[in-house]
Amino acid sequence: MTKRPLALGNRPARTRGELKNLVRFRVGETCYAFEVANVEEVVHPGTITALPHMAASVSGVFDHRGRVTPIVDLRARLGLEALATNRHAKWILMRTEVGLVGFSVDRVLDVVGTPDALLPPPHVGPEAHDQVIRGVAHLLDELIFVLDETKLAGIVANLQLPDAVV
């Protein structure tokens, strides 16, 4: 007799080998994550060059190893008030469909694996916030909102940047 995973309530059944690795971080009081597969690096914030006529949630660009990389402020992008940079703040550099983009976060927590499939995103709050949530994971009695880096990076899609700093 073959044992099959048991589905409880609305949660999908767990199956072996379906581990999704997530980089967990905080923006405000909420726990978010990116799938680790698209993370290039986590770095300390550096010097930003502001660009005119950019959206309020784009802090500017910086030179990352010879590549001009835009930085998206997730606090602003998610509709939160600006916060003075603290020693825990980090930039998560992500490979997206529009190229390398950095996302500023309040604090990087850890890398975790979740064996569950992502739950569908909720439809609450501002529409712009809902559209950037890929799904929700549940870990240790906390909900983790997994963000879609390409949708978040869409704000810099038309930004014309050189491939390298000369």
Write the layout of secondary structure elements.
Layout lengths: L19 E8 L2 E6 L3 E5 L14 E7 L2 E7 H4 L12 E7 L2 E7 L1 E8 L12 H5 L1 E7 L2 E6 L1 H5 L13
Parallel strand pairs: 2-10, 5-7
Antiparallel strand pairs: 1-2, 1-8, 3-6, 4-5, 6-7, 9-10
Give the tags.
globular; OB fold (Dihydrolipoamide Acetyltransferase, E2P); 5-stranded mixed beta sheet; disordered N terminus; 166 residues; 41% strand
Written description of the protein model:
By secondary structure, the chain is mainly β. It has one domain (20-156): CheA-289, Domain 4 (OB fold (Dihydrolipoamide Acetyltransferase, E2P), Beta Barrel), CATH 2.40.50.180. Helices cover 8% and strands 41% of the residues. It contains three helices and ten strands, in the order βββββαβββαββα. It has helices spanning 74-77, 127-131, 149-153; strands spanning 20-27, 30-35, 39-43, 58-64, 67-73, 90-96, 99-105, 107-114, 133-139, 142-147. The strands form two sheets. A five-stranded mixed beta sheet has the order 8-1-2-10-9. The chain has a five-stranded mixed beta sheet with strand order 3-6-7-5-4. β9 (133-139) and β10 (142-147) form a beta hairpin. It is globular and about 40 Å long. Mean pLDDT is 81; it is low at 1-17.
